[in-house]
Amino acid sequence: MRSLSLALTLSALLATPALADVSCGGNFAGFVQKMKAEALAKGHSKAAADRFFAAARHDPSVIKADRAQGFFQKSFVDFSRAVISQNRMQNGAANAAKYKSVFDRIERDYGVSRGVLLAFWALETDYGQVQGNFNTLNALMTLSHDCRRPELFQPQVFAALTLYEHGDFDPATTQGAWAGEIGMVQMLPKDILENGVDGDGDGHVRLKTSAPDALMSGAKMLRHLGWRANEPWLQEITVPADLDWSKTGLNHKMTVSQWAKLGVKPRSGSLGPSSLKASVLLPMGRNGPAFLAYPNFEVYFEWNKSFVYVTTAAYFATRLEGAPVFNAGNPEAGLSGAQMKQLQQKLVNMGYDVGGVDGILGEKTREAVQSVQQKLGLPADAWPTPALLAKL
């Protein structure tokens, strides 16, 4: 989720933070010694710890990347058009054919559709071509030493040590993303320990060089995160012009049959099971694209926290399985980053939790916008416009 222009992703956010094992900051060499001592306390051998930590270095470029990482301010339409290229579609079809037997196993064992993994594989690393060139140990140690989120990264260091002891991690040569993710679908060491699968039967889990290992491991992780086997995740729909827009959004759910009674129709194919709960998702308001988001869509947010990225990845998965290009509609103009910050600050002043004044239209900001639209008597489609900003 970090290669190419997708530096927005910090899939380290998947983990539930605990307290840091070792105090952060201070002299880095001293910090390495404290981490080594903690490794021994956790039961790792002194010889393995000595070898593992011998090459650890502080990497200022990791801190620079961490501080500079930003969530995309592009709209869903612009972002998806930028990252879903014809080349990625063609390579997706080629890889689907090349690894058909692997995807067949994944769908049988984990119930995760092949388009879902193909889309992640494409957006994460361009099907393995761009996996990141940061030394993984240095990245994890640097972020563990930094006092911003040490509780998130220190467990990943010890997980990497365990992988090293298993012969699946080289502290000197293993490279990946700046936040420590490794391989074709960018997984953290702890996730690899918990969900790694030897897909090619060679006795090792090698996510950098083995597509079967990477794909099977990604599927297992999705199941671990709550993926519901053999259920849909996202589907483009058409909605009636008189729909009650206040019922839309991920915080509002009804059964598929209830949505159908309100006039929601599939743009292609048929809707999911009638008893399945779903939300009507309008990424750019009532005049833009419209989707029905099923329970599996929420699992995407366990993999990535960006609303635009998640919606794009889920839509891309449907495209790879034959869905048509979305109908972009004619949405109203949105806000610039600076205008979004102004709006968010106004919402905060009104008592709303927008998840931070960051210029990003995330889910909390969308919910606050929808609430304000209702109070002002505007169509409550959660899409902020210059007109709404002016009213506030």
From TrEMBL:
InterPro entries: Lysozyme-like_dom_sf (IPR023346), MltB-like (IPR043426), MltB_2 (IPR011970), Peptidoglycan-bd-like (IPR002477), PGBD-like_sf (IPR036365), PGBDSf (IPR036366), SLT_2 (IPR031304). Keywords: Signal. GO terms for biological process: peptidoglycan catabolic process. Residues 336-392 form the Peptidoglycan binding-like domain. It comes from the Bacteria. SUPFAM superfamilies: Lysozyme-like (SSF53955), PGBD-like (SSF47090). GO terms for molecular function: peptidoglycan lytic transglycosylase activity. Residues 28-317 form the Transglycosylase SLT domain. Residues 1-20 form the signal peptide. PANTHER family: LYTIC MUREIN TRANSGLYCOSYLASE, MEMBRANE-BOUND LYTIC MUREIN TRANSGLYCOSYLASE B. This is Lytic murein transglycosylase. It comes from Celeribacter halophilus.
